[in-house]
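Regression test case RT-17, inverse folding.

Input:
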């Protein structure tokens, strides 16, 4: 195979002395996306990928297969507020979701349709918060990864805007006060009030009253002493109390503050949980009796549920309601307290060996009452109930071959029924799901999900191995069209539950973050080795794929063991771990990865940073690095710098390509763009592992779960 001719990328002589470490950065100039030289180089890379794709007619076949297995319809449970329910729906052919309201008679009406707002499809419905009475809804749209994300308040009956936009509310939390005339939310300090070049989050919690200008919104919490904190907001059902969680990173231990709302504009907060002291996450909810329900991993790495008096500041005073199960990490819980119930109930979702269980408990004592039957060995998510008082519990269920399906549990009758859900254009392939355990280098057993067609197949086959391994995010057997298409074409799809994720609870996360991030990378390479050694695949048939922090995982794994892989696909990855804090939201992730501003932590980062471990003369696997042209999460420089470094270094004849996408976000792009990206990923992985899409007879699936 002829070597590719790549656009020339100047290598500069930038070398920094950081705590005695000489750190080379020859492609730092690519960080300036406004520089004409960078734009010209990136445009040449775009043309190179375009020419490569034109020569791959099988991409169209992959796109057709993806179309058959992609889901559409309703994929998450409703929000029931007063007499109405709010549903998000995305029909086949829609670029974005639309927001519907369903009244007590079952009549459906569109409240927000992004296609009407922006026919181009680049404006999406990001999130929404109905008032408790269901008469108003605060809506946040997202426009092609623009930083605005304003909040607009709509009258549910007319669909007309009654307030807003409230600016700079990206990644906000919002909590309505009873009556629907005011809410608390989180927004960034106006740029004119910040020091020049201040790129920190600088968020504040504010109170907004409907009909008043946003400039008058009172700041009730947050300050310059916490420039990168994330805040979560909860108001008690009677509107008397506000709870705020404050954390320095998306997976960090958090503080909890509670205030009585005698004056909603000036609440007096009591710090009831000190995250630094507990080293744990604590999520509070207000109970009808005035006490708190606490979901926490304090002294319970797999999670437990406690109750506490409103101003208990000593964790020793917390009463355990539902104890930790060391074999089944806690996912979420829900209180059902309708007055028609004989007693208030607590619905608890856990994950045992990657698959979900639902159990019902007495809320007062925590006593187990029963387990709820589920459709299969899959994943339950997004527990929701009526507000203000819960009788029904809605949840989403899916498995590797079943798109999200919405079920409703009735706590009075004790019955569970399918209510709505997503569907596919065709039937998904019959898929066999196995959960196996493989040994890491240090002897730790790691879970590996294997998804194959149900047909018997002897010998190795083309394999796509996926992983994430950061922020305590667990891998589960979710429905994923890309995986269904790969398996439908005859491939093996595998998911490695490496350390750094949350599959085994908080201790699993701790074992793969900070100074131990190298374990996640080793675990992933050990998964690849196991797949090869057990004759499930070969090095020439193995591709790896990761998104965001998973992109870091797969690129770092390939730098360490390039000989293991035929192809590597990294979507929106982190690659330059010395300067990741300077891009996107990287400055808020130091609790996960460490900071280059501290000598010991810089040493950790340099050990595995993909960009800094590219070695000239190595025959690297085929690489596809994908990302948004403007990525406000990770920053686009990771893709450009890593691409240039690999193109310069590789001695092999497999391509190093960059696929950039304009007018999209880090995630949740228009549906057609998501499918086009998935088709390109499948075509790339298939090309270098020997898998081609074929006419596959789609049959109703049967998911079989086995443990080995």
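Golden output:
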């Amino acid at each position: 195979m002829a070597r590719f001719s790549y656009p020339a990328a100047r290598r500069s002589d930038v070398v920094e002395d950081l705590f005695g470490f000489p750190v080379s950065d020859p492609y730092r100039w690519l960080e300036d996306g406004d520089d004409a030289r960078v734009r010209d180089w990136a445009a040449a890379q775009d043309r190179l990928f375009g020419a490569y794709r034109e020569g791959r007619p099988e991409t169209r076949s992959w796109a057709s297969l993806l179309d058959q297995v992609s889901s559409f319809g309703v994929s998450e449970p409703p929000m029931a507020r007063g007499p109405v329910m709010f549903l998000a729906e995305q029909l086949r052919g829609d670029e974005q979701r639309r927001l519907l309201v369903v009244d007590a008679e079952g009549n459906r009406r569109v409240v927000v349709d992004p296609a009407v707002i922006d026919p181009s499809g680049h404006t999406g419905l990001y999130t929404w918060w109905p008032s408790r009475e269901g008469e108003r809804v605060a809506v946040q749209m997202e426009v092609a990864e623009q930083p605005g994300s304003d909040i607009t308040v709509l009258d549910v009956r007319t669909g007309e805007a009654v307030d807003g936009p409230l600016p700079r509310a990206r990644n906000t939390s919002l909590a309505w006060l009873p009556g629907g005339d005011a809410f608390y939310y989180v927004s960034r300090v106006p740029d004119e009030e910040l020091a020049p070049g201040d790129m920190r989050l600088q968020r504040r919690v504010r109170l907004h009253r409907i009909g008043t200008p946003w400039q008058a919104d009172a700041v009730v919490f947050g300050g310059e002493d916490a420039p990168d904190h994330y805040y979560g907001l909860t108001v008690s059902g009677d509107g008397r109390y506000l709870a705020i969680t404050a954390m320095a990173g998306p997976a960090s231990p958090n503080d909890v503050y509670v205030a009585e709302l005698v004056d909603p504009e000036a609440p007096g907060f009591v710090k009831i949980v000190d995250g630094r002291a507990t080293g744990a996450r604590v999520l509070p909810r207000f109970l009808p009796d005035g006490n708190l329900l606490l979901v926490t991993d304090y002294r319970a790495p797999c999670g437990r549920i406690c109750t506490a008096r409103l101003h208990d500041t000593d964790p020793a005073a917390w009463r355990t309601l539902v104890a930790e199960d060391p074999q089944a990490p806690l996912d979420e819980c829900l209180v059902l307290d309708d007055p028609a119930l004989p007693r208030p109930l607590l619905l608890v979702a856990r994950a045992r060996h990657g698959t979900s269980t639902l159990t019902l408990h007495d809320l007062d004592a925590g006593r187990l009452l029963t387990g709820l039957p589920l459709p299969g060995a899959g994943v339950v998510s997004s527990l929701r109930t009526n507000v203000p008082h819960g009788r029904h519990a809605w949840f989403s269920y899916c498995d590797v071959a079943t798109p999200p399906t919405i079920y409703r549990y009735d706590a009075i009758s004790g019955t569970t029924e399918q209510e709505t859900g997503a569907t596919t254009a065709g039937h998904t392939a019959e898929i066999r799901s196995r959960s196996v355990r493989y040994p890491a280098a240090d002897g730790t057993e790691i879970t590996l999900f294997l998804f194959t067609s149900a047909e018997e197949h002897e010998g190795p086959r083309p394999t796509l191995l996926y992983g994430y391994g950061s922020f305590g995010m667990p891998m589960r057997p979710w429905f994923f069209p890309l995986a269904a298409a790969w398996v439908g074409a005859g491939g093996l799809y595998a998911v490695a539950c490496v350390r750094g994720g949350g599959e085994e609870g908080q201790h699993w996360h701790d074992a793969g973050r900070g100074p131990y991030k190298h374990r996640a990378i080793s675990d992933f390479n050990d998964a690849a080795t196991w797949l090869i050694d057990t004759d499930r695949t070969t090095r020439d048939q193995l591709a790896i794929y990761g998104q965001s922090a998973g992109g870091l995982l797969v690129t770092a794994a390939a730098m360490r063991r390039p000989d293991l892989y035929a192809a590597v696909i990294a979507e929106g990855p982190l690659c330059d771990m010395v300067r990741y804090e300077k891009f996107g939201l990287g400055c808020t992730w130091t609790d996960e990865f460490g900071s280059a501003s501290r000598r010991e932590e810089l040493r950790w980062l340099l050990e595995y940073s993909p960009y800094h471990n590219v070695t000239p003369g190595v025959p690297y696997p085929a690489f596809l690095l994908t990302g948004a042209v403007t990525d406000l999460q990770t920053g686009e420089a990771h893709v450009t710098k890593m691409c240039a470094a690999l193109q310069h270094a590789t001695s092999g004849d497999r391509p190093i390509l960059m696929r950039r996408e304009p007018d999209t976000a880090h995630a949740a792009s228009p549906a057609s763009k998501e499918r086009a990206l998935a088709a390109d990923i499948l075509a790339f992985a298939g090309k270098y592992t020997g898998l081609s899409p074929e006419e596959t007879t789609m049959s109703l699936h049967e998911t079989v779960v086995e443990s080995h």
